[in-house]
Amino acid sequence: MMGILVSIGVVVLVVVIWLAASFKVLQEYERGVAFRFGRLGRLREPGVQMIYLGLDRMVRVDLRIVTLTIPPQDVITKDNVPARVNAVVLFQVTDPVRSVMAVANHAVATSQMAQTTLRSVVGRADLDTLLAHRADLNEDLARSINAQTEPWGVEVKVVEIKDVEIPQAMQRAMAREAEAERERRAKIINAHGELQASEELGQAAEILSRNPASLQLRYLQTLLELGADHNSTVVFPLPMDIIGPFLKKVPQLLDQTKPGQTAQPPADEQKTDVTNNE
């Protein structure tokens, strides 16, 4: 009798342990793909699930977005420039059943497919597109990878090219090209400035030539600006229209003065001398 009770107790204990081991807890971000005797069962939702030990097997599938780093890939661009390109891929499982049934390891498969697609897409683009139009390449990469991973129940959210490494010789050549381009723009801007300045100066000269007094005022203004610096020496040209009246009187004085005679002062000056004598 005692042996029967012991046997029953052992059996009950084994059953309790077996039932306790069959309780599985799924997190809110997890789904369970269950198999019973090798056949696919229903999809298990978050919470407590009964997975009978020895009868059932469950594969946990994480539905959160996974960050996948693609290691640097050696590629040759369309214009035959060698480069090393790495990228980051964000993907998410949208169908847990297909992610388990269609592929052995969806994360590894997505990584390999992303590497192959990256080399293929970058090889179809030239270096300028790779450096300046990464957004278009990222969209092309996402579409190409999604076309391969969609049957696996995996959706690629984002693909971003992180870094592009090119040879040092190519970097120096690009630096020289950029410098030459900047110099060309600077010369063009300088030429446009000279052209506009010449047009404005021509209009200013035309306006000033209408009135000689305005030109004199401009000269005086220039002297005032230069006079602010007390250590400067100013060589100021004397305009001909100022000394012109004096030059016109010189021939008259020479005609009035004869050899052996002294030029007589004007009548106003003689009257002034007489008045002073008185």
Question: Describe it for me?
Answer:
With 278 residues, the protein is α+β, with helices and mostly antiparallel strands. Helix content is 54%, strand content 23%. It has helices at residues 2-22, 96-101, 106-123, 127-132, 134-149, 168-208, 212-226, 240-256, 267-277; strands at residues 23-26, 30-36, 39-44, 47-50, 56-62, 66-76, 82-93, 154-165. Strands 3-2-5 form a three-stranded antiparallel sheet. Helix 3 packs across helix 5. It is rod-shaped, with a radius of gyration of 49 Å. The termini are far apart.
Please provide a brief summary of the model:
This protein has 278 residues and is of the alpha+beta class.
Distinctive features:
rod-shaped; alpha+beta; 9 helices; 3-stranded antiparallel beta sheet; 278 residues; disordered C terminus; 54% helix; single chain
Beginning-to-end CA distance, first to last residue:
175 Å
Order of helices and strands: HEEEEEEEHHHHEHHHH
Helix and strand content put the structural class at: alpha+beta
Hey, roughly how much beta strand do the residues contain? 15-25%
User: How helix-rich are the residues, as a percent range?
Assistant: 40-55%
How is the secondary structure organized here?
Blueprint: H1 2-22, E1 23-26, E2 30-36, E3 39-44, E4 47-50, E5 56-62, E6 66-76, E7 82-93, H2 96-101, H3 106-123, H4 127-132, H5 134-149, E8 154-165, H6 168-208, H7 212-226, H8 240-256, H9 267-277
Antiparallel strand pairs: 1-4, 2-3, 2-5, 6-7, 7-8
